[in-house]
Write a structure and sequence with these properties.
This protein has helices at about 15-30, 40-55, 70-85, 110-135, 160-180, 215-230, 240-250, 250-260; strands at about 10, 35-40, 60-65, 90, 140-145, 185-195, 235. It is of the alpha/beta class and about 280 residues long. Helix 2 links the parallel strand 2 and strand 3. The radius of gyration is 18 Å and the shape is globular. The protein starts with 7 loop residues before the first strand and ends in a 15-residue tail after the last helix. GO terms for molecular function: oxidoreductase activity, acting on the CH-OH group of donors, NAD or NADP as acceptor.
Length: about 280
């Protein structure tokens, strides 16, 4: 897929941050329609106004959607299919993070359920709502699921978040294999696993050795290129892959020492604040 010209692109968490940047890329490439899902009404309205100024012939559609609510997902997906059409590109970008507390110190029910609903279940429900129509259409398409490097590496003070992203990775890559096995090779799945991105969502999080905080523009550029090529994974920085290698080689205690003490990963959430708006 050279670009998204003439295609329908749907993005969740599209009102700000990287979601907004994906929308801007789609508009710049002449998408037929860009569909924005977000729960933040003022930010969504502002983003729509900004996009329309440069949209040209691209249609901009916005839906106020709480992706933690399965019924809201299903209802709004039906509206999109009826009012706009079947997405050619679906980017499950919406996400949340809770941190800076040990698991037993959190409001475990509220924090855990909220995190899993948005980071793990929402991409599953949204994909289920649109993928049958994408398959039936028989056209080239892309599914992008934004997970995290935390889905590979357990880390103190983010147990629920890490669990939610482990689940997202397992789901996303399994769907990739299912589409290939079922012969729907025109549909490609990309699973995105970045380290902490400087969007405000990870305000206060620290870099580690060989794991710098990432610029959102760099992540969006890599994801967009990988989406076009149909690349299975985007892992940033590449040093994250080293942990996967270490898992298979070193005993757990030694790996913990290396990742936690030498690379400093286990202290990266100590001063986490998160988005304040």
């Amino acid at each position: 897929m050279k670009n998204v010209e003439g295609k329908i692109v749907l993005i969740t968490g599209a009102a700000m941050g990287m979601g907004k940047m994906y929308a801007e890329r789609a508009v710049a490439e002449g998408a037929l329609a860009v569909v924005l899902w977000d729960i933040n009404r003022p930010a969504l309205a502002e983003t729509v106004d900004q996009l329309k100024q440069s949209a040209g012939a691209t249609e901009i559609h916005s839906y106020l959607v709480d992706v933690s609510d399965r019924h809201a997902i299903e209802a709004n997906a039906a509206l999109v299919l009826d009012q706009v059409g079947t997405p050619d590109v679906l980017i499950n970008n919406a996400g949340v993070v809770r941190g800076n507390k040990y698991f037993w110190e959190t409001d475990s029910v509220a924090d855990t359920e909220f995190t899993l609903k948005i980071n793990t279940l929402a991409p599953m429900y949204i994909t289920r709502a649109f993928l049958p129509a994408m398959i039936e259409g028989g056209k080239e398409g892309r599914l992008v699921n934004v997970a995290s490097s935390a889905g590979f590496v357990g880390n103190p003070r983010m147990a629920a978040y890490a669990a939610s992203k482990w689940g997202a990775i397992g789901f996303s890559d399994s769907v990739r294999l299912e589409l290939e096995q079922a012969g729907h090779k025109q549909l490609k799945v990309t699973t995105v696993c970045p380290y902490y991105v400087k969007t405000g969502m990870f305000e206060g999080a620290k870099s580690g050795l060989m794991t710098p905080l990432l610029e959102p523009e760099d992540v969006v550029n890599e994801v967009w290129k990988a989406m076009g090529k149909g690349t299975a994974f985007v892992i940033m920085p590449k040093s994250v892959v080293l942990n996967e290698t270490i898992k298979g080689i070193l005993p757990t205690g030694l790996r913990d020492l290396l990742v936690g003490k030498v690379f400093g990963i286990h202290k990266t959430m100590d001063d986490f604040k998160g988005r304040q708006d």
